[in-house]
Design a protein that fits this description.
single chain, Nuclear Transport Factor 2, Chain: A, alpha+beta, 4 helices
Length: about 140
């Protein structure tokens, strides 16, 4: 009976490790993403985005390519001056990681739901949707 139990545990570990590894990798990538976004680190943001990445901003009906997103960083840098970004992973399913993010600007807060698709260590897609105009629900 002990051998059967050991085999079961080894098999379970082998099945779970790749999933846990992917989630840990996505978490590290998203931690880097938010850190770079906060300080408008163009090099890091560019490195984190796949060349064919698409950034969808649901609230304003815009889809940006990587190039368009990178071109908007100057404007973002001014808007984000003095801000803080807090984020936590809400769920991971079907290859997508959903994050709840509080953008705490000096003049106001915004609570967002952001969904990321990551492949080969790069963000290939992101969708942002506002949840609230304050971070009370964070």
């Amino acid at each position: 009976m002990d051998r059967v139990w050991q085999r079961f545990l080894v098999t379970a570990a082998l099945l779970v490790y790749p999933i846990a590894h992917v989630c840990a990798d996505d978490r590290a990538i998203l931690d880097r993403w938010y850190s770079a976004l906060l300080v408008a680190d163009r090099t890091e943001l560019s490195d984190l985005l796949a060349d064919d990445a698409r950034m969808k901003l649901d609230d304003i009906g815009v889809v940006q390519s990587k190039q368009e997103f990178m071109a908007s960083i100057d404007e973002w840098q001014g808007a984000a001056a003095g801000a803080e970004i807090r984020h936590r992973i809400e769920k991971r399913e079907n290859g997508r990681t959903t994050v709840i993010a509080c953008y705490d600007f000096p003049e106001n807060d915004t609570l967002m739901r952001e969904t990321f698709t990551v492949a080969d260590g790069r963000i290939t897609a992101s969708t942002q949707t506002a949840i609230s105009h304050d971070c009370a629900g964070y």
